[in-house]
């Protein structure tokens, strides 16, 4: 996980399969969730490549393929991704605090996962 810590999105982009646009399209609140997932996938000891990492309808979507490994490890690979995606529904995608998924914005038509503070002001920059 250490090599991804400097610029976590740039480090993750290096894991993308050839021919895919290396775009990590989510906010920094899911950084620890995603880096933990990458570490867990690497711990399986199999080669893998990412295809897409993004927020969609309030949840994390982490599309990746295992390139080798026994069937049990490949099944665990898919399970680890599913577990991280499930956890994303309870983590604020902006700040990483505990969050809930719901509609935001004037129309309420955007589905995002935010903590109460970020949901109140979803378009203001976070204080450093």
Characterization of the model:
- This protein has a domain at about 1-90.
- The two termini are about 25 Å apart.
- The longest helix is centred in the middle third of the chain and has 18 residues, at about 70-90.
- The protein is of the alpha+beta class and about 130 residues long.
- The protein has a three-stranded mixed sheet with strand order 1-2-3. Strands 4-5 form a two-stranded antiparallel ribbon.
- Helix 2 (about 30-45) runs antiparallel to helix 3.
- It contains four helices and five strands; from the N terminus they run αβαββαββα.
- The protein has helices at about 10-15, 30-45, 70-90, 115-120, and strands spanning about 25, 50-55, 60-65, 100-105, 110-115.
Topology of helices and strands:
Elements: H1 8-13, E1 24-25, H2 31-43, E2 48-56, E3 59-66, H3 71-88, E4 100-104, E5 110-114, H4 116-120
- Sheet with most strands: strand arrangement: 1-2-3
Q: Into which percent range does the helicity of residues fall?
A: 25-40%
Rg computed from alpha carbons, rounded to a whole number of angstroms: 15 Å
Structural class: alpha+beta
Instruction: Describe the main β-sheet briefly.
Output: 3 strands, mixed
Bin the strand percentage: 15-25%
How many extended strands? 5
């Amino acid at each position: 996980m250490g090599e991804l810590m400097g610029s976590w999105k740039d480090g993750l982009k290096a894991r993308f399969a050839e021919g895919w646009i290396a775009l990590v399209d989510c906010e920094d609140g899911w950084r620890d969730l995603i880096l933990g997932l990458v570490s867990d996938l690497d711990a399986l000891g199999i080669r893998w490549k990412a295809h897409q990492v993004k927020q969609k309808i309030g949840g994390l979507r982490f599309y990746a393929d295992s390139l080798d490994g026994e069937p049990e490890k490949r099944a665990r690979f898919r399970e680890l991704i599913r577990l991280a995606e499930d956890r994303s529904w309870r983590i604020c995608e902006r700040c990483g605090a505990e969050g809930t998924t719901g509609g935001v914005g004037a129309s309420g038509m955007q589905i995002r996962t935010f903590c109460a503070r970020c949901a109140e002001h979803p378009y203001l920059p976070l204080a450093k």
